[in-house]
Write a structure and sequence with these properties.
single chain; about 140 residues; alpha+beta; 5-stranded antiparallel beta sheet; 4 helices; elongated
Length: about 140
């Protein structure tokens, strides 16, 4: 089989013209390839395949905080704020982590006293930020 150089590389050194059709096709292909690679990365396809084949036991997220909250089983959670004697029950809407803090947005929130679990109030949404070592999250099992 005979392979040829991409016309763009050959023409760049020999002339001043640019093969625009190749540039357009390369741009279209790169966008589609970017979408495909993003989907593979987001779904952790390579990590899941490696775990099934007993090649690796890595779960694919940067840390367990992200892995836990990205799990398809995790929807409703209890977030315990022991220092302020509060428990939040809500759905995970979004979350992030910095080197010092963990942030989480909960929806459909019910706030309870801790440890007696007396209902205090309900709100539609709440943003919470805690130092890394002050956050306890439990999966809620609603009946």
């Amino acid at each position: 089989m005979k392979y040829e150089k991409i016309e763009t590389f050959a023409k760049l050194s020999n002339s001043n013209s640019i093969p625009y059709s190749e540039v357009i096709w390369a741009s279209i292909i790169s966008i589609l390839l970017g979408f495909i690679i993003s989907k593979i990365d987001h779904s952790k396809l390579i990590n899941n395949l490696a775990r099934k084949l007993n090649i690796s036991n890595k779960y694919g997220d940067e840390n367990l905080y992200s892995y836990f909250l990205n799990s398809p089983d995790i929807n409703w959670v209890y977030l315990r704020d022991i220092e302020n004697s509060l428990t939040y029950l809500g759905t995970v809407e979004s979350f992030s982590e910095t080197t010092e803090h963990k942030e989480i947005v909960l929806g459909q929130v019910t706030v309870y006293s801790y440890p007696k679990s007396k209902e205090l109030y309900e709100i539609d949404r709440i943003y919470l930020v805690y130092p890394k070592d002050k956050l306890i999250i439990e999966q809620a099992k609603l009946k």
